[in-house]
Amino acid sequence: MNDSDDDYLEVDEGIEENDLSFDKKGVARRTRKENQKQKTTANIALKGSNGGYSWEDEYHRSWDIVQEDEAGSLEGIVTGIMEAHKKRFLKNVTPFQRGIIRSMVLVIDFSKVMSEKDLRPNRAALTISNAIEFVNNFFDQNPISQLGIVLMRNGIATLVSEVSGNPNNHVEALRSIRRLEPTGDPSLQNAFEMARGLLLHTPSHSTREILMIFGALFTSDPGDIHTTIDSLVKEKIRVKIIGLTAQVAICKEICRRTNYGDDTLYAVILNEGHFKDLLLDAVTPLAISKSAQVEMRGFTLIKAGFPTRISEAIPSFCACHSKLIHGGYICPGCKSKVCMLPTVCPCCNLMLILSTHLARSYHHLFPLKLFQEVPLAESYISTNCFSCLTEFPQGMSESERSNSDNRAKKEFHTSSRYQCPDCNKHFCVDCDVFVHDVLHNCPGCGC
Amino acid sequence: MDAIADRAFQEKQHNVSQDETPSLLAVVIDTNPLEWTKLKGVICLKELCKSVLVLLNAHLSLNSGNRVAVLTSSSLNSGPKFLYPDPNDKTYEKRESLLSSDIHRQFKFVDQKIIQELQILLDNEPLNPENQELKGSIAGAMSMALSYINRLTNIEPESTGNTLRAKMLVISISDDSTQQYVPFMNCIFSAQKMKVSIDVCKMGPDSSFLQQASDVTNGVYMLIKNVHGLIQYLTTALFIDPSLRPIMVLPTNSDLDFRASCFVTNKVIDIGYVCSVCLCIFSIIPRNNVCPTCQSKFDDAVVKKLRQKPIVIPLQKKKKLEDGVQRT
Ligand SMILES: [Zn+2]
Ligand SMILES: [Zn+2]
Ligand SMILES: [Zn+2]
Ligand SMILES: [Zn+2]
Ligand SMILES: [Zn+2]
After folding, report:
1. A443 vs B143: CB contact, 8 Å cut-off?
2. Are residues B277 and A99, on separate chains, in Cβ contact within 8 Å?
3. What is the pTM of this model?
4. Three-state DSSP class for residue A432
5. Residues with CB under 5 A from ligand 5 (ion)
6. What is the domain extent for residue B264?
7. The CATH fold of domain A97-287
8. Distance from the A19 Cα atom to the nearest Cα atom in chain B, whole angstroms
């Protein structure tokens, strides 16, 4: 998912603590998903080492930053970099109040500029395939949310797929526009007006968001875009824009005004990998900003039913469509049968969902604490990774450390052990990444 | 099938090739001693072990590349633990053998190791368990098993090139109330992402969580009533190849209970309240109208509406209604 580009080495907070013996200056920096602190530095990240923009920098090749150690070997450094690379996947773990039930309109630029080939194979093709990946990730992480897709083409906005909770429809629709040729000018105003209309009927407990992928540097609008921005602000629609070319002043203003003065949701991609990262950022529910909380009277509490699935030998009618079907879900409130979830019970108005839909987002809520790297020592209490049983390298004694032959060894640079602050068990770097990225449980804390 | 839970992954599942890829079977055995005492007279751990060993041997004999791992969930003395493989112990021959000498070497190695480790586990249990806290849970053992599966199926093949599939079998005897909901759910979704099916063999009370686990991951759920046929259950259900499962009638109970657990009282409920910020489930409206997990303040007007009891309006002839009473 997070393909890294060979020409860039992503430097992250975690890495700077690692004692890697290469000069980190001048290495292009990239932001990392879900690292809130880094988000705010997105624009600083564009700046290179000399304070100018990164494209003004001298070009650094990835092989320039690696220096041989005294013995002329790269092995120790390479393993260090490998672990550092893995560590960068780790995220910020502060829990936020997030709007987990989301309604989003994805707006894709399909104007003439999108046929440019600065992204391979071309901008439009890459955007579509990234968008398909985004849709799948979005519904994986936001199971009871809604999404719609709008295209900017020939000066007008075209609806590609209606706001709905079914990812397959969206993916189908995105596949079908692959055949289209990008033509004409984009119109921000038309796109925003259409997205606004689509988001009009969303329930009050849902967020309203627009995610735009914008390739052009201009917009051709039928009227005053500022009135559109005003209505976006009034309707509390939050806009995130991903620019493919360069910064555009109006985009920055839109993001700033719709996000309570915070313009970090506007970002311009640095390369293909960064494009993916920016889209991945949008998968995580937005934190509810302080100023927005003040305005609210409070959040909604929803009454919901968790139905039972039944299977029947003889089909019976469902209450929602009056169709004859085998099996279905039984509303716990009134015992009527519905055929699809999530839905609202047509008889008793109870919202029916599966607990498994909700449970997918719980890890946002109870984030796992980051593991600490165990400091270098002569001997360690653990010999194997607690959860996958991989053998750890042994500690190096003082005499071994002074031997310069050993400098190239991995255990000279790192203990390779990562400790959970709660249960104090030791894990290998692979398990550390797996546990924080996929599992979201500490295997040692399961007590 | 469940429309949403699986959809993000459905596309990729189509082209599972039925090749001879070896597979790893990870077995998680519920060893909660307090629950085992409840099953006294029905089945004992020894009987269960016999059947599990037969299953493991059968699995190993299917393909020479097949591997097994066995974990225990909990005990009074230690938390989740690997019975096999054991990384530290390379001296298994030294201990006196509990098995007959003329069995296949690989079987012998695995069986002996598991029996010995289980014996050690039981020997270390305190004799008077009154005021002892239970350590470990099924979710903890499943987390460990998933990390191990991740190592064997995702990390190691990067260097060795040997691909491996994996599946998990959970043998549980405990009640749902002893489980932690969130870690358990996290395990289910990770297993789904990793395409590890979770088969469940349940004795004692029925479990809604484990039903969901097998449903989400395309596994088999068996509630076993007649424990004497245990090995029959294990072998018939579990040796259905994952690629054949969509077209076979599985011995799973067909009605599926999707109830959730309340975050405050841990009660299993079918109707509850959901916080719109964190999606936590509550069986009652939280005190002070503040979400206990995310501290969000709920809208008073909304809560007031939810608190309203349904009002039964007495039947009256419409025409006779006076203006004031009519508002309902
Ligand atoms: Zn229906
Ligand atoms: Zn109903
Ligand atoms: Zn590990
Ligand atoms: Zn821990
Ligand atoms: Zn909450």
Report:
1. yes
2. yes
3. 0.70
4. helix
5. B 275, 277-278, 291, 293-294, 296
6. 260-307
7. Rossmann fold (3.40.50)
8. 25
